[in-house]
Amino acid sequence: MKTILLIGSTGSMGKAALSGLSHHTIITANRSGVGAEYVVDITDENSLRSLFEAVGTIDAVVNTVGYCEYGSFQEMTNEQWRTTIDSKFIGQMNIVRIGSDYVRDGGSFTLISGILSVKPIPMAIADATTSAAIETFAKCVVFEMPRNLRVNVVNPTVLEESWDTYGEMMPGFQAVPGVLVGKAFQRCVEGFISGQVITVDA
Ligand SMILES: NC(=O)c1ccc[n+]([C@@H]2O[C@H](COP(=O)([O-])OP(=O)(O)OC[C@H]3O[C@@H](n4cnc5c(N)ncnc54)[C@H](OP(=O)(O)O)[C@@H]3O)[C@@H](O)[C@H]2O)c1
């Protein structure tokens, strides 16, 4: 039994992660505070520091937050790129940077990317690019993590539970059930892998 901080617990991916981790003690957080125990904005360094200080020492952090703007490359503004980078890349990187003081020896961070990093589609260049960036970050940062702390990324295809939202922009993709993605989060938290990207595709 581990104590796990799950950021983004109320979202579709957070619920998928929860399905594989519910036998642990889960501490939940999101930005609105609706349906979660703690409030945090992962794009705000001070907010992240306050969260970890309030939660205290834990065994693992699972993050499923990574807000993305969608549009064609020609239309995407600097602000849209910045918003996506601040959440899906810098926000997740800061969870590891700031949170590593609060995770027990041998504990883990599990981050989120998405299948578009390897299967690009129109209008999703910022999601795809930042997903690839966080995967590269995880592969590299493990060489510098103290106390055997582990870092992995789950890279799922679209969830069955999210098909109504994303299906139209993803013709030819096969959705997977959240419980299957939950098992990838479970492997990352309960296993010994580090610096890995666990792809869950159909
Ligand atoms: N859904 C899919 O099929 C799928 C597939 C592959 C990859 N992904 C990736 O998974 C990630 C999450 O997607 P999702 O579908 O789960 O989104 P979602 O359903 O909109 O959930 C987002 C979650 O993050 C919280 N949140 C939003 N901004 C936050 C912030 N700045 N700080 C802290 N919490 C914040 C939300 O809670 P509040 O708004 O209440 O604060 C909510 O709990 C995205 O990066 C997405 O690309 C999703």
From TrEMBL:
Top-tier EC class: oxidoreductase
Enzyme Commission no: 1.-.-.-
Record-linked Pfam families: adh_short_C2
Keywords assigned by UniProt, alphabetized: Oxidoreductase
Coiled-coil regions listed in the entry: none
Molecular functions per Gene Ontology: oxidoreductase activity
Taxonomic superkingdom: Bacteria
Residues making up the signal peptide according to the UniProt record: none
Keyword Cytoplasm: no
InterPro entries assigned to the protein according to its UniProt record, in alphabetical order: NAD(P)-bd_dom_sf, SDR_DHRS6-like, SDR_fam
Family note: Belongs to the short-chain dehydrogenases/reductases (SDR) family.
Name by which UniProt lists this protein: Short-chain dehydrogenase
Organism: Obesumbacterium proteus ATCC 12841
